[in-house]
Amino acid sequence: MKQKQNSIQGSRQKVKLLLTISFVILFGYVGPVQGGGQQERLARVLKEAILARVGGLDKLRVPATNAALPQPTLADGVTVDPRFAITEAKRYLGKQLFFDPVRTTRIRPEFGGIPELARTASCGSCHLGEAAGKAGQVINLALGAEGRGYTDENGMFHVRRHIQSGVVDVIPTPAQYIVNGVVVEDGRFDAVDAVPRLSPSMIGFAFNNRLLLGGKAGEPAGSPTNRRGLPTSENLVEIAFDAHRMLETQKEALQESRVYIKLFQDAFPEEAARFASSGNLDDLINDDTIERAVATFLRTVVTRNTPWDRFLAGDERALTKRQLRGALLFVRDISQGGANCISCHSGPMLNKQLGDEAGKLIEENFYNLGIGDHPLQGLARAALQNPNHHDIGRAEITGRAEDNFKFRTLTLRQLRDGGQFMHSALFRSVREVVEYFNAGVPEDPIAAAAGTVTPRFTHPRGPNQPSGLGSSSANIDALVDFLENALYDPAFVHFDPRSTTDTFELNERDLTYSVYRPDLAALGAVDGLMASGLAPSNNDALTRRDRGLEFLDVTSRVMVSRRGVDRNGPVQTHHLIFTNISSAPVDTHLIVAFVSLTPGVEVIGAEGFTAQLPVSGVPYVRVFLPGGVIAPDASIDVPVQFSAPADTAVQFSVVLLSGQGIP
């Protein structure tokens, strides 16, 4: 018996040794195996790896307060320039402006602009909190489009924005077709505002010295893209305002609002004093103050409470064991069995070159990864009558062939909600991106033929080695887990008053003026709406339904029939068939309000009683439409249960509403 026990013990030790050897091969030397559990040992090893590669955990930590975030400085390079300093009043104003459709008023009918579409889109049209600050779909659409998204029965948000019926996109934003020096078509002014690149995340805005995917914003003072010599962030919003139907005309729209006048006075005391003296609102509300406010808000768009951040703050159990292994792969060099992701994704926002955590380098943060055009470039080629037109990225700004097809390194935070990835929206999941790097083979022959594809992508293991990382499926799983979950902060999406991460979208603290800003409520601000009184993000009818701000009566467009009734004691199940008999889709949620219901009968599982539509106090059920829509001639089968006295024939009529929220 004793010999058998010794044999078992020896086998266990061999297994333990083999596991240790396997771990060392995958992740390098981990130190003594005794002392603490595996998770604690992994945490210590990860910290050591970070120290070895980056030089200190502090280089990856997000500043705890907005005031400590990077800001433009005076000539000494240290003192924050007061013109661009972050203040709470400026941040709050900038957040309102970012999501307020009131500013899209620069309409040029001679280029196809439609005056009726003015004030229907905002910066928030293409940058959604639920989509990691991106558009959440391949084609980012602002003016000329409708809708925002719907929530399914599982609480998942689905972006759903499309071009309005009858509206045509002639040329992408901001392309121009010029003949003999005359602008014939201008993407800044046609009916549809859509850019032929995937809209980038706004997270980590303050940590970049070049912005936009090709680095157009932040070029030296006097350059064609920065004639005023603005800081990078202000230069970006100036370029965006020009491209997206806002520059020059937005001030008049804002000057109409007493609420905005108050907000600008709070945010810009020097300009407020000039306005008080002159009585001219242009001294207070102008493109310059608007730019500075929006740039201030965007500088504060960070996440601070991911599991990764908690780990960097000292919580060794913040990451799971698999996430710790993924983080080791992320940090370690190829020679150490890692994936070397940190060589391009370092710094607090994981969007800077390793060694550039302070954000001083420029060209080193742009790479050609062998990826081709965004689908909307096809429209650009047709509009420009140039079949050889391609998006060449950084080279468009520098004019250098060696920069062809290079694009800026972006943040890795909130990737789980990103939806699409790369400037062309080529990939639809984080796993697809990791697998692309693992293979190391360019997908686009034109980008590959430019000769500028980085060896970090094609041959990270060395020039005479196979392409790509060549990682195992287990390593890919660990890395994806780290990227998707360890770098995710729920407070960026869902308001948490306890969190130091603010929601990207306007939240209840921002929009409940009656509670948090009674001074604005006294000036006419309406809870739930923008300071201008419009709907947040977009002010088209479909978005207002998506926001729960209004409902569309679709009773006449949907035929209701009954397939049968099942009876089980006092419970009757009526199988209702809803058929769209109109030529237009029925979208968002279908609210079924039961009016003229037989006395004594109750709707089992009713979501509640209507507040006002069609009248107050009517029971209703919410039907989550498959794909968020009932197409013309399509039907859905909805079982509805009623509690009724014995032998009662349940009778009712229905009013059908399209929209989300409480009717």
Coarse morphology: globular
**CATH architectural grouping of the largest domain:** Orthogonal Bundle
| Class by alpha and beta content | alpha+beta
If you compute it from the alpha carbons, what radius of gyration comes out, rounded to the nearest whole angstrom?
A: 28 Å
Helix content: 25-40%
Compute the average pLDDT.
Answer: 94
Find the CATH topology of the largest domain.
Cytochrome Bc1 Complex, Chain D, domain 2
Strand order of the largest sheet: 9-17-12-15-14
State the domain count: 4
Sheet of most strands? 5 strands, antiparallel
Strand content: 5-15%
CATH superfamily descriptor of the largest domain: Cytochrome c-like domain
Tell me the number of strands.
Answer: 17
Distance between the termini: 76 Å
**Under the CATH scheme, which class of the largest domain?**
Mainly Alpha
Spans where pLDDT lies below 50 across 5 or more residues: 1-8, 14-35
Tally of helical segments:
20
